[in-house]
Design brief:
The structure is a homodimer.
Chain A: H1 2-6, H2 8-11, H3 13-23, E1 32-34, E2 41-44, E3 49-59, H4 71-88, E4 92-102, H5 108-123, E5 128-136, E6 142-152, E7 167-171, H6 176-187, H7 196-203, H8 209-217, E8 223-226, H9 231-242, E9 245-249, H10 257-265, H11 270-276, E10 283-287, H12 293-302, E11 307-314, E12 320-323, E13 329-331
Parallel strand pairs in A: 4-5, 9-12
Antiparallel strand pairs in A: 1-2, 2-3, 3-6, 4-6, 7-10, 7-11, 8-10, 9-11, 12-13
Helix pairs in contact in A: 4-5, 4-8, 6-7, 6-10
Chain lengths: ~350, ~350
């Protein structure tokens, strides 16, 4: 047991990040508007604009399995998880740097396909790969991408900003990526066609850049984060950052019929899937109740993406809770997807 | 044999980067002043200034061995190899993002020490870690750092710019890192004290930021690169970029007595060590012969670092050659340190 608590695996991602508060000095450079602890760092360009900078490391058999995905889709996905962080700040993707660790069994055709996927996903947002670094890797493919986006400073939405009384909203539906992964694990690549949308979300999620920008520009979102760790894990980051609690309504969590069916087929617990499975890369945001709920729905409709109110920000003293279908209120575990576990 | 030429290991780092010319679209964003193919990408901030952005992935047992280094030194080193790229453009380091893949056996104390090393090396240049990403890794420690620097646009020195007739110069001395590694491999951590400087260069090289800035500001360097792959490999990048050849004088390559002694003890070929061993992180630059050689030496002296003229840029038709001590001229192999091999 002693060993476990002293090694990084026993400590966990969030506690490790928390330690940095005590190790790293306070940033006194006034160009750094946001440092560690948000979806992206924010660096001032001039009085009106800022760069958003974020990176994300993806390791084979931890974040993806090559038996499930084409290299092309993997390239798109590796870019998308970073674009999703830019989206969560309300920014516009602009540039990427790509670091790769290439295992010996990777073919040149694989390498080309990976870059083509990255290129095509960047192209959707008129963004470009401008640099990077290649290395060999012993056994597993490693993809680390840094994305730089741009935003108007007065439009940037941070994790900070949620207040008691704000509604909690999510774009799209939940659990699709987790369901897609379960379907792939069960059937391999010959899965029933009806689950194509879930598999697609898992293998190549669509970052919510346009809707993120609209929510930011119209000053609707008071705080925002992208769903990489799942609702329970990611909403907890917002609560901690703002010293508030939250009440999530279980029966308000949006999902598709296929997700329910996949859960049944794969013997997944639906509550677990909707609350604790990650990598949907939807946006979770809070908005003051003064903002007309119809206006929020309307914005979603404009992009063909539903937006659902799934709960409310409450006093910290109330805690972090879930309201069951029965009306019963119980604690919500702040655990989400843990990237220290294997997929 | 067929397999070998189709996999990434058989293709090699430089050819893989070359393929991107055909895969990635031309960058039409006019804010991107330099894209793939230099030490850093360059993004315009305003009419006078630009960001320099670079990343470098370091993988355990490929770029470093934990039996040789403390985690603190490793943190410093991982930052330094990126700062060295900023130095090679004549820029000022400002910010870093840190992506880590942490293996299960790493302790929290290791993690802290790694970040302390990174922090302290950034602090030397008044630069800050502003973001990052953590993941578990199966077996090996992975460190990928993105560094952002700043430079005046009219001061930036690129790989492009060398012309026939330019002298070729290096800062400091050569072969120290390779000698330090050989000493560590031979003796472990109980190496003879006289080789401390070489071991230090290997474990924690000092990026030549101040001298790089001076060479850029005084418009002395026409082209510049940092020595990560070794003189023969890195100078070749400059030749290719400028469609020129080079003649290197073997007897002008600077080294210390300890490096010669380490080579003898460890049975290393001196020419190989000086030309083809990498990771010295000195600067290699070209300068027009119109620039007074004394002025170049003087700049070096100002920083306590010798600068040596080691050759000249010649017509491409002359080729890529080395002048031996005997006066004989023979082809110089453009091979350097290959990060697709293990250390």
């Amino acid at each position: 047991m002693k060993k476990k608590s002293n090694d990084v695996t026993g400590t966990g991602e969030f506690d490790l990040i928390d330690r940095l508060k005590f190790i790293l000095p306070e940033i006194k450079n006034k160009d750094v508007l946001v440092g560690i602890g948000d979806d992206t760092a924010v660096i001032k360009i001039n009085t009106k604009e800022a760069w958003l900078v974020t990176c994300d490391i993806q390791i084979e058999n931890r974040h993806f399995r090559l038996k499930h995905t084409s290299l092309y889709d993997l390239g798109k996905r590796a870019v998308s998880v970073n674009l999703s962080d830019i989206a969560a700040m309300g920014g516009d993707p602009a540039f990427a740097l790509v670091s790769l660790g290439l295992p010996p069994n990777l073919t040149v055709a694989d390498y080309d396909a990976l870059f083509k996927g990255m290129r095509d996903q960047m192209k959707v947002f008129d963004a470009h790969i401008i640099g990077g670094n290649l290395s060999g890797s012993q056994k597993h493919l490693i993809i680390d991408i840094t994305v730089i986006g741009k935003a108007r400073i007065d439009h940037i939405v941070q994790r900070k900003g949620a207040a008691v009384g704000d509604g909690i909203y999510v774009t799209g539906t939940l659990g699709a990526s987790g369901a897609g992964l379960a379907i792939l694990e069960k059937y391999g690549r010959n899965y029933p066609e009806q689950f194509q949308p879930q598999v697609d979300v898992h293998l190549s999620p669509q970052p919510r850049v346009a809707i993120g920008k609209a929510l930011a520009r119209e000053k609707i979102a008071s705080a925002m984060i992208d769903l990489s760790d799942g609702v329970a894990g990611d909403l907890y980051h917002i609560c901690q950052m703002n010293d508030v609690g939250a009440l999530v309504y279980l029966d308000a969590l949006p999902f598709t019929e296929e997700v329910r069916e996949a859960a049944k087929l794969c013997k997944l617990d639906m509550d677990q899937l909707l609350l604790h499975s990650g990598e949907d890369y939807e946006l979770l945001f809070t908005a003051p109740d003064s903002i007309n709920s119809d206006r929020i729905q309307e914005i979603g409709k404009g992009f063909g993406i539903p937006i659902h109110r799934i709960g409310e920000i409450v006093l910290r003293s109330f805690g972090y809770k879930i309201k069951e279908q029965t009306g019963e209120i119980s604690p919500l575990k702040p655990q989400g997807w843990d990237h220290f576990k294997t997929v």
